[in-house]
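Continuing the batch. This is chain 6 of the set; chains 1 through 5 are on the previous pages. Same settings as before, nothing changed between runs. Recording input and output for traceability.
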Amino acid sequence: MSIRVAVVDDQALVRGGFAMVLGHQDDIEVVAEAGTGVEAIEVARTHHPDLILMDIRMPEMDGLEATSKILKEADWPVRVIILTTFDPDEYVYKALRAGASGFVLKDIPPEELVTAVRTVADGGALLAPSITRRLIGQFAERLAVDTKVSSRLERLSNREREVLTEIARGLNNTEISDKLFIGVATVKSHVSNILSKLGLRDRAQAVVFAYESGLAEAGDHDIGY
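Output for chain 6:
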């Protein structure tokens, strides 16, 4: 079954380029294109794509507002990948808070774009650790810890808090397994429980939650390479 994708960007050349790259894949179908946030909402309502590539800066309505509206309204499982020209970008951080499953830079190599779409469509989150740390670290430092958010940590066991901390540091399941000396299957189970208990969509929202709850702190270490 094909992954049904909508491509949203106000630059026709960029939009067409992404659509062409994805359309050449046997397992991906580009069902629609849009040039504004308003058009993106209409496209989502009409075509019910599995995934939307969403430009962050557009006329009429930006990608942040469009993402928020689409995800709040959708009665089908749709995921959003944010497109941006540079990082870190405050709008990208806000988009992650709104429910986007990750972001890619517009100069991403074609093969990596395809991988990104498949990863997010399969339920994963697209978070390059080195970029994500700078992005979330920069803006999380400006936020006071929200006591309402931090109180939700009480829903988690001590082990689940440890796993969430490592997710925020950018570790994948195998790396968390090695770090905490537990099996990969156990890590997957913990991740599933964390998302369920906290009412989070995916790992992207889990990272944001970890910083905003005060569980993870920006700048105490470096990750990625």
